[in-house]
Design goal:
- The complex is a heterodimer of chains A (about 250) and B (about 425).
- Chain A is about 10% helix and about 45% strand.
- Chain A has one helix and 13 strands.
- A 13-stranded antiparallel sheet of chain A has the order 6-5-4-3-2-1-13-12-11-10-9-8-7.
- In chain A, β1 and β2 form a beta hairpin.
- The longest helix of chain A is centred in the first third of the chain and has 30 residues.
- Chain A is globular, with a radius of gyration of 20 Å.
- By secondary structure, chain B is mostly beta strands.
- Chain B folds into three domains: about 70 residues, no CATH class; about 240 residues, no CATH class; about 90 residues.
- Chain B is about 5% helix and about 50% strand.
- The longest helix of chain B is centred in the N-terminal third of the chain and has 17 residues.
- The N and C termini of chain B lie far apart (about 50 Å).
- Classes of the chains: A mainly beta (about 250), B mainly beta (about 425).
- At the A-B interface, loops of A face β1 and β3 of B.
Chain lengths: ~250, ~425
């Protein structure tokens, strides 16, 4: 009986400690040194269930931990000239708009369209948005070793204010550098929806993601994203994230 | 002498290094041969179409020289292929906003396709059933746009009056339009047009207020004379006050646009004419509702109307309200007083296949069927930059021969096209 009690206390305490550790880990990841801004070219290769592929390229600039982002579509030719601007806000809905050259109009889109796929890829607008620390609950599930890499396994549970399309996300975090190397996304029915793996390179002393592989396990579709021509901390000005700059050919 | 030559050469090299060699260049466009068939007898519609569109941009620093060139042809007369310079303007991006000058196609209004507040450019009626700026004609103009926090103010000046391009004397266009004699056209004294638009974002709510001073885009009979033809045509003066906004409500998006017009026959009466006085106020509105279904089908509906508030005039045999035709505003509302449209589009196979449907009902008479227009469009990317397009436009009128849709019934057609994007 006494042993049972001790085991119960250990279990309760360990759950408590792990829950705290989950938040602590999330805070550590969030506090990790990040570049103030970045510029890069991205190539996306979309592969459908039958293996048919198509590729798309974009030029993008980010600032403030991805909270400000401007993207110009470079290819395929039919999308050339289209551009996307996103500015995240703390206390109000995010601003998202598209420049549509065929209409010569900037079209505001709903931030609740987060579940929409970005450019037909397996990345949704939500997947491209930075997760706010206070919009999720965290649980440190366990520790693992995979391919000689020690990992934390962290469960991210979105709170209602996150307006997430996922019920929860499991992240595999490299213990050495606190980079997220793999994530599993679960839909509202708690079924596995997507798996993402990320490769990093050390650029200017930052662990910079240079390759993503996102697989939609429910429809067999996948997207490989390769990031090149990365420039970090180039003192990108705030006024770059203005609607007018969507209309310009990227030159930065 | 040699020294001065050397100096010139060095100057040119420095200039080239700092300008030409630093110039950026970008281009995009499409080659798009297409055929339009009348479904009744399978005959080819012999109307002009743009076989190619090219956008060329040259940029340096905060300046861009932007151009849009089209190649327009007719299948029956390929030798008559014309190059159209649709836009050519200098675009400057200073820190405070934007400045544009040249031949420009402008766009105002938050609604899609039908914009009562967007009267800045005339329409090319040959392309009236196309989308976006394909329907518009560039105007020699200048604009300045200034950002002030959450606010943007844009001023536009148009140096010349341009009228709609109408399909005059076209056998394959169902409504017969005869080109008016140049002698019967009254000249505009001050053909300048100008406007201002203020856009503001407040609490996730975007709205804009606009004013535009312009002249009719299509000619109207404005006076009776003793010569042949026994009337003169001209372009009435219009002042427009516009209001439009966007609001996101849960899964719905509302985009509305309204414009209140003051139309006057501003021409001075001559000694030998009898002027048709006109002083008309009318309202045009578009209410658009969008919804994205969970299965990624995008639904859009638009309710639009034209309401004549007051119509004072003289020289007419009937009440001006019954015969007044707006000279600006939404083209469709020049012919029909009320309409409702339903649209849906969906993508399949990684966005390769796009299916789109659009139905517009004429609801001038709520209690009786007045006709409809149905468009079914599909496009499929079979290779990275190659696309095949198939669409069908079906126009159905009623027994009323004066109904615009009854007149347009013969314009129903099947369209087949191949598009190469570059």
């Amino acid at each position: 009986m006494k042993i049972k009690k001790i085991l119960l206390i250990i279990f309760v305490y360990s759950t408590f400690i792990f829950a705290m550790s989950g938040l602590e880990l999330a805070k550590k990841i969030d506090n990790k040194k990040k570049p103030k801004d970045s510029k890069s070219n991205t190539t996306m290769v979309l592969t459908n269930k039958s293996g048919k592929q198509q590729s798309k390229t974009i030029r993008s600039i980010q600032k403030d931990d991805n909270k400000k982002q401007i993207i110009w579509f470079l290819s395929p030719a039919r999308d050339k000239g289209v551009a996307f601007l996103k500015i995240e806000h703390k206390n109000k809905d995010d601003e998202m708009c598209l420049w549509l050259p065929a209409f010569k109009k900037i079209r505001r889109i709903r931030s609740s369209d987060k579940s929409d796929n970005f450019m037909g890829s397996d990345m949704s607008y939500e997947d491209m948005t930075t997760r706010d620390l206070d919009e999720y609950k965290y649980e440190l599930l366990r520790e693992e070793t995979l391919n000689d890499t020690d990992l934390y396994v962290l469960k991210n549970i979105p709170l209602p204010k996150a307006k997430s399309t996922y019920s929860y996300i499991i992240s595999w975090v490299n213990k050495n550098n606190l980079t997220i190397v793999k994530e599993k996304f679960f839909d509202q029915n708690d079924k596995l929806y997507k798996i993402k793996t990320v490769k990093y390179e050390k650029i200017d002393d930052y662990d910079t993601p240079t390759e993503f592989f996102m697989e939609d396990v429910q429809n067999g579709h996948n997207t490989k994203i390769t990031i090149t021509n990365v420039e970090l901390d180039t003192e990108v000005k705030d006024y770059l994230f203005q609607e007018k700059n969507l209309k310009r050919a990227p030159r930065w | 002498m040699r020294k001065s030559q050397l100096l010139i050469l060095i100057s040119i090299v420095i200039l080239l290094q700092n300008s030409v060699f630093a110039l950026g260049f970008s281009y995009s466009g499409e080659i798009n041969p297409s055929l339009k068939y009348q479904p009744s007898d399978g005959t080819l519609l012999e109307l002009p179409f743009r076989i190619s569109n090219i956008d060329l941009n040259i940029y340096h620093g905060n300046f861009e020289l932007q151009s849009k060139v089209a190649l327009e042809t007719r299948w029956e007369d390929l030798d008559e292929t014309k190059i159209q310079l649709r836009e050519l303007y200098l675009h400057w991006y200073p820190k405070f906003g934007e400045v544009k000058i040249g031949k420009i196609i402008h766009a105002w209004g938050y609604a899609d396709q039908n914009n009562p507040t967007d009267n800045l450019n005339p329409y090319n009626f040959y392309y009236l059933f196309d989308t976006g700026i394909e329907r518009k004609i560039g105007s020699l103009s200048g604009s300045i746009s200034v950002n002030l926090g959450n606010m943007n103010v844009e001023g536009i000046f148009i140096a010349e009056h341009n009228s709609n391009k109408l399909p005059y004397n076209e056998n394959d266009f169902p409504i017969e339009i005869n080109e008016p004699s140049k002698d019967a056209m009254l000249e505009l004294e001050n053909p300048y047009e100008y406007g201002i638009r203020l856009k503001h974002n407040i609490f996730d709510f975007d709205y804009s207020i606009s004013y535009f001073h312009c002249y009719d885009r299509s000619p109207t009979i404005l006076e009776e004379v003793l010569t042949i033809p026994p009337y003169n045509l001209g372009y009435r003066k219009n002042d427009m006050i516009g209001l439009d906004f966007i609001k996101f409500l849960g899964d719905f998006t509302i985009r509305t646009e309204s414009a209140y017009f003051f139309t006057t026959n501003q021409y001075n009466k001559s000694n030998f004419s009898s002027k048709f006085e006109q002083d008309v106020q009318y309202l045009q509105y578009v209410i658009q509702l969008e919804y994205n279904t969970p299965i990624d089908v995008k639904l859009t509906t638009q309710f639009m109307g034209n309401y004549i508030v007051s119509a004072d005039g003289s020289g007419f045999n009937t009440d001006l309200k019954n015969i007044f035709v707006p000279g600006v505003g939404v083209p469709f509302l020049s012919f029909v007083d009320r309409g409702i449209s339903f649209g849906a589009n969906v993508f399949f196979f990684d966005d390769r296949l796009k299916l789109e449907t659009f139905t517009l009902f004429n609801i001038e008479q709520f209690d009786e069927y007045s006709g409809q227009m149905i468009a079914l469009n599909s496009s499929y990317y079979f290779l990275q930059n190659f696309e095949v397009e198939l669409s069908y436009l079906w126009i159905v009128g009623n027994d009323d021969e004066n109904n615009f849709l009854t007149k347009m019934e013969d314009f129903s057609h099947l369209s087949v096209g191949l598009k190469y994007n570059f």
